[in-house]
TrEMBL record:
One annotated GO biological process: carbohydrate metabolic process
Domain of life: Bacteria
Name the UniProt record assigns to this protein: Aldose 1-epimerase
InterPro entries: Aldose_1/G6P_1-epimerase (IPR008183), Gal_mutarotase_sf_dom (IPR011013), GH-type_carb-bd (IPR014718), LacX (IPR037481)
SUPFAM superfamilies for this protein: Galactose mutarotase-like
Annotated organism of origin: Eisenbergiella tayi
Length: 291
């Protein structure tokens, strides 16, 4: 399941060195698994980190100092082996550093650290990005955790819903079939903060919510009880389940960055929602999973 395990009196998690990916989050007392199983018939991943790209570059490449750097959707970190930096019963840190392979598709020197910290029934997922080069560094980073929905991956999503810490309607940006942002938006009206989950909800792929419209999202079972709560400060987030597959999971994805707009013609420095670090700079962010 995973290479490393953390636990306290309430929960246990497993983390793989490949991608420093959270593979399992279980209730110690009931044995209930909250993460998606990673069945490749639907989607082989469980909780990949998206770095140094969230979504797609236009034409699958970014331009920096006149040179094109090709990079596939969501970047390379999820497919790279991390190293263990430190571990206790309730906290572990993993690291990935730039090398000749990463420089072929991403021009900056970096150190990416991922941490997992347990507290009660909560997992804090921590990101630390360091610019180890001499140039200003441009990057995006995001989470992509997938939770079992319906519970135990049995039945369908009928009766399940989202709850958001915003009473306002959610405005989402439509992503086109090419994986790029369009000018189109869709508005979802909430009933006391809730939005029903239906198979049709993701017909246009992910719901992309920009501009800090919500910072807490809960998954509610058919009785209206929350079984997973995500908390984050990220300015964007995505909601996703593979369209048309009746896949038994839901992703709640905090992002610092997103795909390019379909009409984008700029350089990596000019990308929307991007982040920058000066030489020696450090970026820190995290999100919380509560079960």
């Amino acid at each position: 399941m995973g290479d490393y395990e953390l636990h306290n009196e309430e929960i246990a998690v497993c983390i793989a060195l490949l991608g420093a990916e959270l593979k399992s989050l279980k209730d110690i007392h009931s044995g209930r698994e909250y993460m998606w199983s990673g069945d490749p018939a639907f989607w082989k991943r469980v909780s990949p980190v998206l770095f140094p790209l969230v979504g797609n570059y236009r034409n699958k490449q970014a331009v920096y100092e006149g040179k094109a750097y090709p990079l596939s959707q969501h970047g390379f970190a999820r497919d790279r082996e991390f190293t263990l930096v430190s571990q206790t019963d309730e906290e572990a840190w993993f690291a990935l550093e730039s090398d000749e392979t990463t420089r072929e598709c991403y021009p900056f020197d970096f150190r990416l650290e991922l941490g997992y910290r347990l507290s009660g029934r909560e997992v804090e997922v921590l990101w630390r990005v360091k610019n180890t080069g001499k140039e200003t560094m441009y990057f995006s980073i995001g989470g992509h955790p997938a939770f079992a929905c319906p519970l135990n991956e049995e039945g369908n999503k009928e009766g399940y819903s989202f709850w958001f810490d915003s009473g306002e309607p959610l405005e989402t940006r439509i992503i086109g079939p090419d994986g790029l942002a369009t000018d189109d938006h869709e508005e979802y009206f909430l009933d006391e903060g809730t939005l029903p989950i239906t198979e049709e909800l993701f017909d246009q792929d992910a719901l992309v919510v920009e501009g800090g419209q919500a910072h807490e999202v809960r998954l509610l079972d058919p009785s209206g009880d929350a079984f997973v709560t995500m908390q984050f400060d990220a300015p964007l987030f995505g909601l996703w389940s593979p369209p048309g597959k009746k896949a038994p999971f839901i992703c709640i994805e905090p992002w610092y960055g997103r795909c390019d707009h379909k009409d984008f013609r700029g350089t990596i420095e000019e990308r929307e929602w991007g982040n920058m670090l000066e030489e020696g700079g450090e970026f820190n962010a995290s999100y919380h999973i509560i079960v």
